[in-house]
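ok, trying the design again with the full structure, not the truncated one.
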């Protein structure tokens, strides 16, 4: 990765963030509802008092003025105060973000390692019954709505069998190691859901990557040398598949963090997804803008990290 490419990529990332933040600012301000309405109290409150409340939140200024104030404050690291929590939005997000990362990263990484083994195995058995079954299974799961599968698991393992808690992140009465165990117990069902949804499609992607690698000349040479299938798979196919696979992993984690609303709503998991939903319902402009900005930056950084990892694991990839 050359210096000129790095500089060009940083400029593109900054411009992308600027344009995305601008568009999100306009769209968020287009949402119905008055964010200051919750503070009015009595509907008979005089209009003068209502205007004073709006002025406190800066909502009395023209939209273009609000935009430049937001951009200026954002450059200084000040993303405003949440109308809902009446706290700095950065602090609110930093409380919720680790929970979402915990919810999404663990099953995604686990599904990657399982898919890596399954995908390369069925690639070596292309066209056989196992290959056809896995493709059918993956396409079938991709057509199943995530919320429907999650609700089935909640009903079956949580309600009828009483194996997992139905909702929440931990038992508030527990502390110390007991709380850690409680967190893992509550997280198990969301993890299982995300693993079931993500692993088969991940395996098919690994299979397709492995099939491309199996067509390379060095694989033909390895077979001609008499290397066993296990050695070819481990030393040549897996090693060359890691680059694009890590790219898929980083992008998938970024996508899950940004789109965690559904799974967190079903399992009452108080992470970024529920935070975005609360901010949207309450017209909490500062909080909603900050969560959108965080998601945008996360996706852009994930794209950049994917390029770096692919170049690091695959010497054939050169960015100029």
């Amino acid at each position: 990765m050359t210096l000129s490419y790095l500089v060009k990529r940083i400029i593109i990332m900054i411009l992308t963030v600027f344009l995305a933040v601008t568009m999100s600012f306009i769209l968020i301000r287009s949402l119905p509802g008055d964010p200051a309405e919750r503070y009015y109290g009595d509907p008979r409150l005089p209009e003068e008092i209502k205007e004073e409340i709006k002025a406190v939140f800066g909502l009395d200024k023209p939209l273009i003025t609000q935009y430049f104030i937001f951009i200026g404050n954002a450059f200084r690291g000040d993303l405003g105060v949440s109308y809902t929590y009446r706290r700095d939005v950065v602090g609110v997000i930093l409380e919720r973000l680790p929970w979402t990362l915990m919810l999404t990263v663990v099953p995604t990484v686990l599904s990657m390692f399982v898919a890596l083994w399954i995908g390369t195995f069925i690639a070596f058995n292309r066209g056989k019954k196992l290959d056809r079954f896995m493709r059918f299974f993956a396409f079938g799961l991709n057509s199943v709505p995530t919320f429907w599968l999650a609700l089935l698991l909640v009903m079956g393992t949580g309600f009828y069998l009483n194996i997992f808690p139905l909702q929440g992140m931990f038992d508030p009465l527990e502390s110390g190691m007991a709380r850690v165990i409680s967190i893992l117990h509550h997280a198990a069902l969301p993890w299982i859901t995300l693993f079931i949804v993500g692993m088969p499609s991940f395996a098919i992607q690994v299979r397709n990557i492995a099939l491309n690698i199996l067509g390379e000349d060095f694989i033909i040479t390895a077979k001609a040398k008499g290397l066993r299938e296990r050695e070819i798979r481990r030393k040549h196919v897996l090693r060359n598949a890691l680059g694009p696979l890590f790219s898929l992993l980083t992008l998938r984690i970024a996508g899950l963090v940004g789109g965690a609303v559904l799974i967190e709503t079903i399992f009452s998991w108080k992470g970024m997804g529920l935070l975005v939903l609360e901010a949207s319902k309450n017209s909490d402009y500062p909080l909603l803008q900050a969560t959108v900005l965080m998601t945008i930056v996360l996706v852009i950084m994930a794209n950049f990290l994917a390029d770096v990892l692919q170049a690091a694991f695959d010497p054939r990839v050169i960015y100029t």
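Keeping the full-length input from now on. The mean pLDDT is 80.
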